[in-house]
Design a protein that fits this description.
mainly alpha; globular
Length: about 130
């Protein structure tokens, strides 16, 4: 469980970082090639294979503009995982009692391994199905 000081010091920096990323991805379209700020996936450049996060930048840009179907087409997994990630962050950085079970699950080694397997599995599936 987090110490009380981490619950008060991490969220402002986390929120600032998320806001900065949001501003960049709102105004810069990753579909336009040649951005130094938004690099292409190194795995895709080297192998032609899509990593589990391929399409993340374009998907985020589309979501920030309210184009959720377009965002979904770039990376199905990301659009489904973002709400879960928000709940996990709230559970980790607040003392909301109702989220205690989520906090315990996130800090459970077996759940972390399962999440990693799902993440890697998505990368494999998307390459097999070409999605």
């Amino acid at each position: 469980m987090n110490s009380p000081s981490s619950k008060t010091s991490i969220p402002p920096m986390l929120l600032l970082t998320l806001a900065a990323v949001g501003v960049v991805y709102y105004f810069v379209d990753p579909s336009d090639t040649g951005h130094i700020l938004l690099p292409q996936c190194p795995l895709r450049l080297l192998t032609g294979l899509a990593c589990p996060l391929c399409g993340l930048q374009r998907s985020l840009h589309a979501m920030l503009h309210g184009h959720f179907i377009e965002a979904f087409s770039y990376n199905y997994f990301l659009v489904l995982v973002i709400p879960l990630t928000i709940v996990i962050l709230v559970a980790e950085y607040t003392d909301i009692k109702a989220l205690e079970s989520i906090r315990q699950l996130v800090n459970n080694r077996k759940a972390q391994i399962a999440a990693l397997i799902i993440f890697i599995g998505w990368g494999v599936v998307r390459n097999i199905l070409s999605i």
